[in-house]
Each structure stands twice: as structure tokens, then as C-alpha cells.
Design brief:
about 550 residues; about 40% helix; binds nicotinamide-adenine-dinucleotide; alpha/beta; 6-stranded mixed sheet
């Protein structure tokens, strides 16, 4: 087997990474070196080779970004622009993503270890979503000065002598902290609405794989986002913690693990500042025995193996009705054991995860890092020690199967005989590991689905629409798919808001509710003169 080496696949990506934006922090509209001149490495997960040394910002650099943001916020020009004008700039940034998908996808495939094809598809999604956020600027403008009594005044209207309107103000300086699994998508999903709403924003991407996020600084500069309105400071957890702790930061929007989410909420509580938290999950795939078995196999595989199982909405708990348990497991095992490994994600242009279209995952990517691999192996060792059955997988693959590459690969794994209180059922493993339990009645299916502290996304499969709806309505999670085919599983639409119940999060992303997270609702009471008079006078003046 050929060993994948730097010379035959990393060189080209590393050429892209010589650009300034991948080697400097973006602060106050300029690309600058970190104050202490530190760097940190990222690795190509398929081989473990160093991919790039990127700048490591620290609390001092966060301080610089905050001073730049304070000056832009005090200037006020950005916050008082029409949101539609800010939206136009965001749409142009989205256009910039679209025009650079080839380069960005190559970078993400090298940084995260995902097949190029998948990276390109999801980055296309980020560009579309950005255009959606851009268009919401006009919607936000139309929501300004909405009469309070336009809603019919249930429970009583304001006094006649008042002219009361609602406005949605930006919050101020917001900290945006993102995860590595879909780097640019996760980051831009924060940057775009935060800026459309009129905030000044500082992005701290993940240190594990955040290179593509650095390009957002370049796009902001290209489209003319004013100096200080948007900064990108790369660095580790301490850098994120410095951003959260700053008294000048009025809101933090975070995507990452529930553990870090807790720390961010604690730090924000000290200054009573707001948080929006998109956290982990342990999503349920509930399959009734009236489901077409082939569809159930495809959907289960897509649900748990997309992005190597490293997706917050990964459906890693299969809850299957007793009558089809044996059959479904046998079919799943067949597929799990045949899916080839993605030895060189950068060059993987044909095969790849098809989360965004019909079909199923047909290649297994490496995990993102050595520590993620270790974490997954620890979970599996603990499961074995507890007597949980490894139905298939459970080990690092034979080196020959992955081209002797030294990458962070793990066999796709199915665990059976999983107790409800075990870590394998309760905790997010973030790898290609499916835990299975069975049920007999509809009530039991609901109990099983709701048996963890998470509540991000779940699916119920049945050919009986009424049953699927009953169960979907009882599942406690921010997004539920009720389906007979599995079509659209994991798909997201920019206009459809979603978020987490319980330990999966606080607040909502996407859609108008997602935009509102970055605003403060304010009522303005006019008396002695009407708002119409006030507007007319300001137009004349
Ligand atoms: P993580 O919590 O380890 O890190 C996320 C980010 O937080 C990184 O940028 C990191 O540097 C920063 N950070 C770490 N400690 C910090 C602290 N004390 N203060 C401030 N910032 C800190 O998560 P991860 O491993 O990068 O990402 C994987 C997790 O993200 C999984 O749990 C996954 O489910 C979750 N995720 C959720 C969603 C969602 O939409 N709900 C989407 C993607 C990923």
C-alpha cells in the first residue's frame, strides 16, 4: 500500500496556507501578528503530519480586538446603518465563500480530515446560508418601530395617550466561539447574523481545525466591513476564556461541548451577560417495525456516520422495535464492515458523505485528532469492561486497511446490550459509534428516546404518519424528523430555527429566531407627540 505523504497531497493545500489571512490575526481591519509572536500547529488527520502553524492569540490580543470593537461601537456608524445595508455586505461575504469553495474545501478536508467532496458541499451550504442572513437585514428593518398594539392587545392595550413601538437593537460587542467539525459553517452561522443585527463581533475559531474561519477576516476586509466591527483571533481555550470574561463583551454565542458551555455560562453569569449555546447531542433514531428495512439501514447509517460521527446531531442511539431488531442489526453490520476508509480526504472528490442529498455515507473519514481518537477508544474500553457487546468494530483498523498512513482512524462500531445508565447511552462519544436498545410499545419508544439529558435532534421512522407524528410530538429535542423514508435527515434550511433542549443548549440558531438572539428587544413610548411626527421631523431635519 502507498503511504500518503506530504509530497503527494498536502503540498498544494500548504501553498494556499501561505496567504496572509492564514498566518495573522485580523484585528481592527488589519492583519497583525500576535503580540507574543506565538504559533500553534494543526495536523492532517489522515496521516498525523503537521498541516500548518497558525498564530496563537492570547488574552492580550483579545484585549486589542476588544479595544478596536469598542471604538467601532462608540462611533455608532455600524449600528445605525440600515440592517439591509449590513445585510448586503454579508451577502457579498457569502459570495466570496462561494467563489473560493475549491480552496476552502481543500483546506477543510486537510484540517478536519473530511472528504473534499463533503467539504465542498457543506461550504456551498454556508454560502447559501450567508445570502439568507443577508436578506434578513431587510426583515429586521421592517421590524423596527412595530406598533405594540398591532398584535391585538390581548390582556390589555397600552394607554391611549402613548404611542408605543418595539425596536430590536444590537446587543453590543459579542464574542463568537466556534467548534471544529464544520469550521466555517459553524463560525459564519454566528458572524453573519451577529453583524446583520448591528453588533461588533470577535470570532475565536477552534484551535483543532479553524483555518477556513480565518478567511472570514479576509472577506470582511474585501467587502469593506468597517475597522474594528469584526475581528478574528485564533488561539486555544484560554483565548476563548479571555473573550468570555471581558466586561466589554455583552453576549457570547458558543458552539462546542456541553462541558465548555457550562464554563461559558458560569463566566457570563458573573457579569449577567447573555449566552447562546449550541452544544452536544446524543440523538435518537427511533425505528418502528413498519419501516422499510432498506430505508431504515440507509437512514441509520447516514445518521450516525456522517462526518465520521463528529456532528452534533449524530443519531448515535438506535432505538428499534423488537420485531425487526435482529434483521436491522444484521444489515447494518454488513454495511459497517464494508465501508472503505477515506485514506486521503484532500483528494477524495468522488466518494464521501452525502448528508446533504439522498443516499448514504460511503466512506469513513479519520477522526479529527489523536486526542479525539484516544477519547473514543477510552469510551469503547469502558463499554467492554461494563459487559456491553461490541457487535461490530470497536478497534483501530488494521494499518493496511488505511494505507499505513498513521492517521486517526477507528472502525465504525455498533454496541448492543447497552444499559440505559451507561456512558455509551448517556454521553456524546463524537465518533462513529452506534449504541442500540430495543422497544416493544410506542410508550416505551418515547421513554427510550427521552432517556438522556441531551435534546438536539431526533428521528422517528414509521410508515404510519399518525404514529410518527404522535411520537415526534413527544420527543424532547430542538429538531425532530418524522419520516417513512429518512429523506432530508440532518439537512438544515437557513429559515428553519433549531437549537437544543436540556444539555444540548440555550437559545436558537437559524431563521428569524436565530437573528433575534443577537438583538435586544426594546419598547419606545412616545407621548405628547406621535412617532409619525418624530419621524417626519427627523426627515425634515
Ligand atoms: P470544545 O467545547 O472543546 O471547544 C469549542 C470551542 O470552545 C473552541 O474554540 C475552544 O477553544 C473553546 N473553548 C474551550 N474552553 C473554553 C473556555 N473555558 N472558555 C471559552 N472558550 C473555550 O468543543 P469542540 O471539541 O471544539 O467541538 C465539539 C463539540 O461541539 C461537540 O460536543 C459537538 O456536539 C458540539 N457542536 C455542537 C453544534 C450545535 O449546533 N449544537 C455544532 C457543532 C458542534
Amino acid at each position: 500500500m502507498t503511504k500518503i505523504t506530504k509530497t503527494n497531497s498536502l503540498d498544494k493545500v500548504q501553498e494556499h496556507l501561505t496567504a496572509e489571512c492564514f498566518n495573522k490575526l485580523f484585528i481592527g481591519g488589519q492583519f497583525v501578528d500576535p503580540i507574543d509572536g506565538q504559533k500553534m500547529p494543526t495536523y492532517y488527520p489522515a496521516t498525523g503530519e503537521v498541516l500548518h502553524e497558525l498564530p496563537k492569540g492570547n488574552a492580550n490580543d483579545i484585549g486589542s480586538a476588544i479595544r478596536a470593537a469598542e471604538s467601532a461601537w462608540l462611533d455608532g456608524a455600524w449600528a445605525s446603518m440600515p440592517a439591509s445595508a449590513r445585510g448586503n455586505l454579508i451577502s457579498r461575504m457569502a459570495q466570496g465563500i462561494e467563489e473560493n469553495i475549491e480552496v476552502l474545501a481543500a483546506i477543510e478536508s486537510a484540517d478536519v480530515g473530511k472528504p473534499f467532496r463533503q467539504a465542498a458541499l457543506t461550504l456551498g451550504g454556508a454560502a447559501n446560508e450567508g445570502k439568507y442572513w443577508g436578506s434578513l437585514g431587510a426583515v429586521l428593518d421592517s421590524e423596527q418601530d412595530t406598533p405594540v398594539n398591532s398584535g391585538g392587545g390581548v390582556g390589555g392595550l397600552p394607554p391611549d395617550e402613548w404611542d408605543v413601538v418595539y425596536r430590536r437593537d444590537p446587543i453590543g460587542i459579542v464574542g463568537l466561539i466556534s467548534a471544529w467539525n464544520y469550521p466555517l459553517n459553524v463560525a459564519f452561522r454566528k458572524v453573519a447574523p451577529a453583524l446583520v443585527a448591528g453588533n461588533c463581533a470577535i470570532l475565536k475559531p477552534s484551535e483543532i481545525a479553524g483555518l477556513s474561519c480565518m478567511f472570514l477576516g479576509k472577506l470582511a476586509q474585501d467587502v469593506g466591513i468597517p475597522e474594528g466591527v469584526f475581528s478574528v483571533v485564533t488561539g486555544g481555550p484560554e483565548t476563548g476564556a479571555a473573550l468570555v470574561a471581558s466586561p466589554s463583551v455583552s453576549m457570547v454565542s458558543f458552539t462546542g461541548s456541553s462541558l465548555t458551555g457550562t464554563k461559558i455560562m458560569e463566566a457570563s453569569a458573573q457579569k449577567l451577560s447573555q449566552v447562546a449555546l449550541e452544544l452536544g447531542g446524543k440523538s435518537a433514531m427511533v425505528v418502528f417495525e413498519d419501516t422499510d428495512i432498506e430505508r431504515a439501514v440507509e437512514t441509520t447509517i447516514k445518521g450516525c456516520l456522517t462526518n465520521g460521527g463528529q456532528i452534533c446531531t449524530a443519531h448515535t442511539r438506535l432505538i428499534v422495535q423488537e420485531g425487526i431488531m435482529g434483521h436491522l442489526l444484521k444489515e447494518l453490520k454488513n454495511v459497517f464492515e464494508k465501508i472503505p476508509y477515506c485514506r486521503d480526504p484532500i483528494t477524495e472528490r468522488e466518494r464521501g458523505d452525502r448528508a446533504w442529498e439522498a443516499g448514504m455515507t460511503d466512506v469513513i473519514q479519520p477522526l479529527v485528532s489523536a486526542s479525539q481518537l484516544e477519547k473514543v477508544l477510552d469510551f469503547l474500553n469502558e463499554a467492554k469492561a461494563e459487559g456491553i457487546e461490541i457487535y461490530t468494530g470497536g478497534r483501530v483498523p488494521d494499518p493496511a486497511d488505511v494505507g499505513n498512513s498513521g492517521g486517526y482512524f477507528i472502525q465504525p462500531t455498533i454496541l448492543t446490550n447497552v444499559p440505559r445508565d451507561s456512558d455509551a447511552w448517556q454521553k456524546e462519544i463524537f465518533g462513529p459509534v452506534l449504541s442500540v436498545r430495543s422497544f416493544s410499545s410506542e410508550a416505551e419508544a418515547i421513554t427510550e428516546a427521552n432517556s438522556t439529558a441531551f435534546g438536539l435532534a431526533s428521528t422517528v421512522m414509521s410508515s404510519d404518519p399518525a404514529k410518527a407524528m404522535r411520537v415526534a410530538n413527544r420527543i424532547r429535542s430542538g429538531a425532530v424528523f418524522a419520516t417513512s423514508t429518512g429523506e432530508g435527515l440532518l439537512a438544515e434550511h437557513p429559515a428553519v430555527s433549531r437549537g437544543g433542549f436540556g444539555c444540548s443548549g440555550v437559545g436558537r440558531e437559524l431563521g428569524i429566531f436565530g437573528l433575534h438572539e443577537y438583538t435586544e428587544l426594546k419598547s419606545v413610548n412616545y407621548s405628547g407627540f406621535s412617532i409619525a411626527e418624530a419621524k417626519e421631523n427627523s426627515n425634515n431635519g
